[in-house]
Amino acid sequence: MNRAEERFYQIAAQEVAEKRFSQGIMAKALVESRGQEKETILSYIKLRVQQLADEENRRLRHEQVIASNRASEAKRAALRHWWKSKISPSRSGNVLLFTVFLPVGVLVGIVAGIKAIQIFLFNSGVSRAADAAPEQEVNVKNTTR
Predict the structure, then answer these.
(1) Residue spans of the chain under pLDDT 50
(2) I need a surface site. Which of 2, 5, 108, 139 has the fewest CB within 10 A?
(3) 16 DSSP 8-state letter
(4) Collapsed DSSP state (helix, strand, coil) of residue 21
(5) Are residues 8 and 39 in the same domain?
(6) In a 3-state reduction of DSSP, which class is residue 22?
(7) 136 in the same domain as 117
(8) What is the sign of the dihedral through the CA atoms of 76, 79, 85 and 87?
(9) Residues near 25 by Cβ (< 8 Å), separated by ≥ 6?
(10) Would you say the pTM of this structure is higher than 0.85?
């Protein structure tokens, strides 16, 4: 038996000695013991110790969640601090470079590439049309004569 469990039994025994029972637990103990007085007291102690243990476990889990949340928040704060140190006012040129000029440069490069492809396709299409145009004129001249 660990110290916490021993403490729970002490609490339950003190409640029995003072006849200060939890009504819900006493009702369940009476049902389980079918009204026999000694068994009711034993059942009450068992149920009360279980209730106290469950409450302690919930409290410990809650504390673990809070500690975990605090640790996560501390990590996020450290990361924000690190990031802000990398983007300090003394390095504002880097901020402009990576947040404004680099994306604009990439966008301009993409647009220029698309334009070059369009010009290439247009020029190759024009030369084909120019090659085909004399034949069409010949055909038109032949049909009009």
Answers:
(1) 138-141, 145
(2) 2
(3) H
(4) coil
(5) yes
(6) coil
(7) yes
(8) negative
(9) 44, 47, 48, 51
(10) no
